[in-house]
Design a protein that fits this description.
Oligomer: heterodimer
Radius of gyration of chain B: 17 Å
Order of helices and strands of chain A: EHEEHEEEEHEEEEEEH
Largest sheet of chain B: 4 strands, antiparallel
Distance between the termini of chain A: 52 Å
Shape of chain B: elongated
Strand content of chain B: 25-35%
CATH superfamily of the largest domain in chain A: Ribosomal Protein L25, Chain P
Radius of gyration of chain A: 21 Å
Number of strands of chain A: 13
Strand order of the largest sheet of chain A: 1-3-2-6-5-4
CATH architecture of the largest domain in chain A: Beta Barrel
Number of domains of chain A: 2
Strand order of the largest sheet of chain B: 3-6-1-7
CATH class of the largest domain in chain A: Mainly Beta
Largest interface: A-B, 28 and 27 residues
Chain lengths: 199, 139
């Protein structure tokens, strides 16, 4: 289950495009903390600290403890990160505030474990239809990722949300029939006339 | 066969603008790897097809490829050795307007080294600079 990580943040008064640009120039990332029981708070995070934190959590969903000067700590998780599509620079981060004793909904990444029989032996193609699934749980039960063992998966087999491993205190919120992982038949893509003409 | 619209509302369109960066379709949405444009230009249906064939041929038709762009824009051309005037030329081909950041192709189901080489071969067919990108696992 989930471990927590700490991140130092600063509150900021100024909002909007120009102040955000000034922050980014000063090597900081504008961020926001919002939640069910409190008003949204505009924050600024050090770029270095943020990148370090992202590396430490390595793509897993983790509870982040925000240390705010003067306002104490806040439990949260990373709801969204905006990046520049060309430079890959971090532009903005959204933190969703949570309470330790209250259930919340969150997108958790799906991690594939093992190598499928269908891919190894029968020339199948592994398709991850859902890279993340929505779950509802308490903070202490938050899974970092949903690990799915695909070693027994053959061609034309599908793992749906209903077939994901049951975790204690975790409820899947996506439809049970939604496909998560599938092994497609190899050579499924028919040779198009262009291919034939070119070869 | 080159991609082209089945039918269009208007036969010919004005040149338009290619200013700014791609606002949508600039992230990996389906696959594991992608080919992203870094500069701007027009991508004709034939170029899309040439790049697709280059990718598929290198991947030996394993894995899965998504084409994220479509040539919607009709491009007109006057016949050779025709004097100026007498109205706009006839539609010659269709092209996709590509702005920096646009994700052109996505690939899944093959190792990264194969996907990277496939994208390099596809990039060679295109009239603008591209880069190979991998799905961001850190966020």
């Amino acid at each position: 289950m989930s471990t927590s990580t700490t991140l130092k943040v600063l509150s900021r008064e100024e909002t909007g495009r120009s102040s955000s640009r000034r922050l980014r120039k000063a090597n900081q990332i504008p961020a926001i903390l919002y939640g069910k029981h409190s008003d949204p708070v505009a924050l600024a995070v050090g770029n270095k600290d943020f990148v370090k934190m992202l590396r430490s959590i390595a793509g897993r969903k983790t509870i982040i403890e925000l240390e705010r000067e003067g306002s104490g700590k806040a439990l949260s998780f990373l709801q969204e990160v905006q990046r520049d599509p060309i430079t890959d620079r971090f532009l903005h981060a959204d933190f969703q505030e949570i309470h330790a004793d209250e259930k919340f909904e969150v997108e958790v990444p799906v991690v594939v474990k093992g190598s499928s029989v269908g891919v190894r032996m029968h020339n199948g193609i592994l398709e991850i239809a859902s890279h993340s699934v929505r779950v509802r749980c308490l903070a202490k039960n938050l899974p970092g990722a949903i690990e799915v063992d695909i070693s027994n998966l053959d061609v034309e087999d599908t793992i749906k949300v209903g077939g994901l491993p049951a975790l204690e205190g975790v409820e899947y919120r996506d439809p049970a029939g939604q496909a998560v992982i599938a092994i497609l038949v190899g050579e499924a893509e028919e040779a198009k006339p262009g291919d034939a003409a070119a070869s | 066969m080159a991609l082209a619209p089945a039918r269009t509302k208007y036969r010919k369109v004005m040149k338009g603008s290619r200013a700014g960066n791609a606002k949508g379709g600039n992230t990996i949405a389906f696959g594991e790897y992608g080919l992203q444009s870094l500069t701007r230009g027009g991508m004709t249906g034939r170029q899309i097809e040439a790049a697709r064939i280059a990718i598929n041929r290198h991947m030996k038709r394993k894995g899965k490829v998504w084409i994220r762009v479509f040539p919607h824009k009709p491009i007109t051309q006057k016949p050779a050795e025709v004097r100026m005037g007498s109205g706009k030329g006839s539609v010659d081909h269709y092209e996709a307007v590509i702005k920096p950041g646009a994700m052109l192709f996505e690939i899944a189901g093959v190792p990264q080294s194969i996907a990277k080489e496939a994208c390099r071969l596809a990039d060679a067919k295109l009239p603008f600079h591209c880069r190979f990108v991998v799905r961001d696992q850190s966020v």
